[in-house]
């Protein structure tokens, strides 16, 4: 493709700088959730009682508050600007006189490949493959009206919620000590060399990709919602701050309450019944969606009260390099916890894990700002753009 055929960079107003800020906050926030996937065995991600460091009150409280404020809140916050970005990219390509479809599907194919490599070579908990599939499904609807997109969002989220109660294992019980022992063996494997835990990581990745059908409908629904909000002006400067403030407060209070009900129910169940755990996660699903909308409203209020300076803020930088930073988190966390690095997996309780998160944030911020002094986008963003349009030039 010649340089004359490459669409021009999007102007700042069209791109909407606020989307980068939302992405930046989401990227930081998801590490508060993902850290347990690096620091513990895979089963403990969903069943906290399968981890040996879960007997103290401090770790139970760390689990409770991290699930209350972070779990299932920041991935929806990441999916909404992803959906909005699909619309903006399509508009930019059309403005250049080209058909946006082929470029979009090349981009999703590239994202899928990056996610696949991430899952099998680095960390099994990858979501990029899910986002690529959902982005491919959502794209044909990018011309639809905001109301239609909102209806599609509700349908997808309703399906996702229903599927929580259709999981066969949800009605069974399990031997917690047997699962704990399997978790200890998994930790031992991950403390070994990278090649030694490749088979286990591949197994976990395959289970995550083929058995995580619930995950597909949730980000798809949030992408539709992001597309709807962009088209209806819901991601621009708020016209009525008072109404938005009330919406933010009500959404957060409602979402936190719903989440707390599920967490308390699971706690009182003794952390042992499979059924009670899935019921807890169903409550977290509903609470997370509602709370993420409250967080989005608070972010918009914050931006409206603090006009953006000419230079990019730290959060904008992180959001602009969200893909690269997502994988950077995995690189740093795998070095800290897996055997190819320090091998500290299984050494920290829930509270200790949360203390490590700001350290990783600091590394991300330093490296991101240094990189953007010389390059317009993150390395993986540039690679994805080359796959999509045949040029690494940034969309700014």
UniProtKB/TrEMBL annotation:
- Specify the DUF418 domain's residue ranges: 238-390
Q: Membrane: is it a keyword of this entry?
A: yes
Q: Does the keyword Secreted apply?
A: no
User: A Pfam family name for this chain?
Assistant: DUF418
InterPro entries according to UniProt:
Bact_Transport_Assoc (IPR052529), DUF418 (IPR007349)
- Transmembrane domains' residue ranges: 21-47, 74-93, 105-123, 149-167, 247-268, 280-303, 323-345, 351-372
Q: Which UniProt keywords apply?
A: Membrane, Transmembrane, Transmembrane helix
Q: Which PANTHER family match?
A: INNER MEMBRANE PROTEIN (PTHR30590:SF2)
The name this protein carries in UniProt is DUF418 domain-containing protein
Highest classification ranks of the organism: Bacteria, Pseudomonadati, Verrucomicrobiota, Verrucomicrobiia, Verrucomicrobiales
């Amino acid at each position: 493709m010649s340089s004359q055929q490459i669409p021009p960079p999007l102007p700042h107003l069209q791109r909407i700088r606020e989307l980068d800020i939302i992405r930046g906050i989401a990227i930081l926030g998801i590490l508060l959730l993902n850290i347990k996937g690096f620091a513990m065995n895979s089963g403990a991600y969903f069943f906290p009682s399968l981890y040996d460091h879960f007997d103290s009150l401090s770790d139970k409280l760390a689990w409770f508050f991290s699930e209350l404020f972070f779990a299932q809140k920041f991935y929806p916050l990441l999916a909404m600007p992803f959906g909005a970005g699909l619309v903006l990219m399509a508009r930019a390509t059309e403005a250049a006189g080209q058909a946006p479809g082929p470029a979009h599907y090349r981009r999703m194919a590239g994202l899928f490949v990056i996610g696949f490599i991430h899952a099998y070579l680095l960390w099994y908990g990858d979501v990029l493959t899910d986002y690529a599939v959902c982005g491919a499904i959502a794209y044909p609807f990018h011309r639809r009206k905001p109301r239609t997109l909102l209806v599609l969002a509700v349908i997808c989220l309703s399906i996702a919620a229903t599927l929580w109660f259709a999981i066969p294992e949800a009605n069974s019980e399990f031997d917690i000590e047997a699962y704990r022992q399997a978790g200890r063996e998994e930790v031992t494997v991950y403390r070994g060399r990278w090649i030694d835990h490749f088979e286990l990581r591949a197994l976990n990745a395959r289970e995550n990709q083929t058995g995580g059908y619930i995950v597909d409908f949730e980000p798809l629904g949030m992408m539709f919602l992001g597309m709807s909000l962009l088209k209806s002006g819901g991601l621009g400067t708020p016209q009525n701050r008072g109404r938005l403030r009330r919406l933010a407060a009500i959404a957060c209070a409602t979402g936190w309450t719903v989440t707390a009900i599920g967490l308390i129910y699971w706690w009182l169940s003794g952390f042992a019944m499979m059924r009670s755990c899935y019921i807890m996660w169903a409550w977290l699903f509903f609470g997370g969606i509602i709370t993420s909308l409250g967080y989005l409203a608070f972010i918009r209020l914050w931006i409206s009260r603090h006009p953006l300076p000419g230079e990019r803020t730290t959060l904008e930088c992180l959001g602009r390099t969200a893909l690269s930073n997502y994988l950077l988190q995995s690189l740093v966390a795998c070095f800290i916890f897996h055997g190819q690095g320090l091998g500290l997996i299984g050494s920290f309780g829930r509270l200790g894990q949360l203390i490590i998160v700001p350290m990783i944030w600091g590394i991300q911020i330093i490296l991101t700002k240094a990189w953007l002094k010389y390059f317009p986008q993150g390395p993986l963003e540039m690679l994805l753009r080359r796959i999509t349009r045949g040029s690494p030039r940034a969309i700014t």
